[in-house]
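Write out this protein's structure.
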Amino acid sequence: MISINIKDTRINLIISGLLLFIMISLSCSKEPIIQDDPYKGGMQPLGVKFTGDEPTPNAGSPGDEVTFKISGLENYDNKFEFLINETKTDILSFTDSTITVKVPQNASTGGTTLLLNGQSFFGPKFTIQGKVSIDPSFKAVNGTNGAISDITSTSSGYILVGAFTNFESQAPAIPVNRIVSISNDGVFQTSLSSRLGADGSIQSINKLSSGKYMVSGSFGSYNRISGINCITRLNVDGSLDSTQVEVINSDPERPNFGFDTVAAFNGGVVGRPPFSIVKSFVKDNKTIILGNFLFYLSYYYPRSTRENKIVDVTRMAQLARLKENGELDSTYNFDPSTKGGYAGGNGPINDAFMQEDGKVVAVGAFSTFHGLQANNIVRLNDDGTVDKTYATGSGADGPITSVNYNSTTGRVLVAGNFKTFNGRSCSGVAMLNKDGSVDDVFKFGQLVGGVPNYAAQLNNGKVLVSGDFNTYAGIIRQGFMILDQNGSLAQGYNNTGAFQGRIVKMVQTTSALGYPAVLLVGDFTKFDNRKVGNIVRVEIKP
């Protein structure tokens, strides 16, 4: 055996070189690994490109000729298609740098696309001119940071309520927690003294004859005054209508503990979370409440302390009527034998409206109401019992999301995820007469890509529909459309582009130029391809 003491630097270098040579030789002796080309089978470049310039003109009406700047078409001899917002156009001519097309009759505002050999080339947006457009004079641009659930008119504008905590992305001196006042043109107003407002969503607001307001929803305090159970009354300026009551003093050394400041309206509801009042209506100074709750409650202050309140509870599932002071009205939806309310629905209530005579129509996802068959829609008499004369027959075969009544036309529009109404085929929207029977004139067409979530009739008879659908009767309508009274798309009224979200309420008004308009509020982020914040005023020219 020969031992070598490798201390010499030169020997170290020689051995290191030999080791490196051996490693390289071994690696080079292996078979090379050849991988597949990751781009093999991809589309060949076609040399077609939009230049980025705006078309000429940059807006037009159906039948107009429009020229787009695009290069590379001269080699393909009309072997391509040109679309405006997914609607095929007639190609009139093309050169090595342009293409001229005719705007199709059913086109709507949106992006342009050239289809060639299975490839899509996306071009600039093209605006379709028509009778419907966003009113640029309405100042609310960013809107709210949460859904708007209801709106009521005031002498100087509107009060909005909902789930928002900001309006127009600003931090005003007066907070806007779930309630805000705006002018007719959408400008924030400081007239409300709501201060910290509600700690949860306000879903309904009603103006009283006194000028005060009833608000309801899913909140437990207002301006830090607790003990509120989904409903309370506000003063004209939006502050809580409160009062001081005498309670048991749990600390005699502090005389002021014998009094407590509470909401003047002493009544509310509770239930299995998440419980809420979906809708409320005021008639003859009494408030009808509908929602997804199980019990009515009120406080008995003479036996309460500041810290602990004695509560009177009555079982009242989904429906109750409250007196002006909040006390339960036992003449409405009340069974003396059980000393509580009737059964209510076997599923949630989603929406409701009150007729002029005080009867209430409620819709939702239920098949019975008060133990009687009522497929997702029911009308209630003035005493809270089911109106058996309401001629809805078998009702809807799926949940109804919204219901709206137009007192001018006497028609009711229901929208939701159903296919038939009283056995008649429809794709989620039905028009009813005042007695609940189906209007035979209105025939809703086939939707593709989603379902409608809102429908309401304008005073002129036209019908406004929103949802998450993509086409109606084979025509591109991305979430929003206006129909004639027979259910067909209203000519000239469907030029707007994509809508995203859900409309909750519509107020018919006028634009700054005096044209008919609608103020739309709800839970939506886009209208006519433009970013909006749950509120927009839309001009609808005659």
